[in-house]
Fold this sequence. Notes:
Number of domains: 2
Order of helices and strands: EHHEHEHEHEEEHEEEHHHHEHEEEHH
Helix content: 40-55%
Strand order of the largest sheet: 2-10-9-8-5-3-4
Radius of gyration: 21 Å
Mean pLDDT: 95
Bound molecules: pyridoxal-5'-phosphate
Low-confidence stretches: none
CATH topology of the largest domain: Aspartate Aminotransferase, domain 2
CATH class of the largest domain: Alpha Beta
Shape: globular
Distance between the termini: 46 Å
Structural class: alpha/beta
Amino acid sequence: MTDAFPNPALGEPFLxxxxxxxxxxxxxxxxxxxxxxxxxDFRAMTRALRDRLLAxxxxxxxxxxxxxxxxxxxxxxxxMLGSFVPRNGKVLVLANGAYGLRAAKTLEYLGRACHLLDxxxxxxxxxxxVADILAADPAITHVLAxxxxxxxxxxxxxxxxxxxxxxxxxxxxxxxxxAFGALPLDPIALNCTAFVSSANKCIEGVxxxxxxxxxxxxxxxxxxxxxxxxxxxxxxxxxxxxxxxxRFTPPTHTVAAFMKALDLHEAEGGAPGRLARYTxxxxxxxxxxxxxxxxxxxxxxWLSPIIVxxxxxxxxxxxxxxxxxxxxxxxxxxxxxKLTVVDSFRVGCIGxxxxxxxxxxxxxxxxxxxxxxxxxxxxxxxxLEERRKLAA
Length: 392
Ligand SMILES: *Cc1c(COP(=O)(O)O)cnc(C)c1O
């Protein structure tokens, strides 16, 4: 009962954001207990955490292991890059938004060579162009793809990228932060060296740690690669294997909450169940917003069930801040857009919310437009022109 949608016990707004996101009451309640990090009970919890995350990769993933890392998702991206890319390695970063660019920036800090394929705000990197780059530059050792680029909400074509990467004999790394736990990710089929995700995205936990899932042989040979003590995946793994403990203070309450979140994930039918709910959330929300006159940045083919970017209306009565405030007053926190060319905003589909709540989101958006005196939610012609570039 306590986890019903909407959560009746709290007069809090729903977070239509891609993490931190709205969590179940029972997930929050799981944080009411203190844990000793060295204690057997917490060690058992860490063991179960790793096993359960690995189990989400399918039954054949026994040559992979899961290494949790303290911090936010970016800490895990940095840990993965610093640990699996040797100092003389070179990474092809496939960017179409803020998270791809952040990964390239991370490599710059780490002093690892990087070839950046920057597709701009949202165009997807395609297999053929990746194959061309790999053929032209034999120094590239790894390819990094962003699974769902959360800044536009595009679902990138990781299967075709995986295929050409494998065919070219290079290693494949994935930032699946906002996708793992909902969208299918089979590291074996993708020939993936390592991928990362974090506690506060599709598993619907609270922030505080992320995790690297990597081939065991790659973890073993990552010894000595890392630029960083705290972000050394091999060292964290080695300590966890030997002692069952995290090397430094673990986010105990966050881990306890995450175990509860994993229970709810399992009860919902695992990733397929969650994907079904997020997809319904998206479909109901997008259909309703389109009926109000809003337009999505992306054509349906590229829309993820994670977060959706809408163009801001051209009507001069529309101002994002007023729209945001009107939505918040109705119990919904939306997200500003991240496009550089046109004004936009984003609405997340993930977190402890269902399609009934999405219908209320649409109703609130309609009321907000009326309150602002916006006659039409149609975007400016320049926005639609921008979208036409996304043919194919
Ligand atoms: C959330 C997210 C990250 C990590 O962001 P943090 O703010 O460090 O948690 C990285 N990549 C993607 C695609 C994300 O959605």
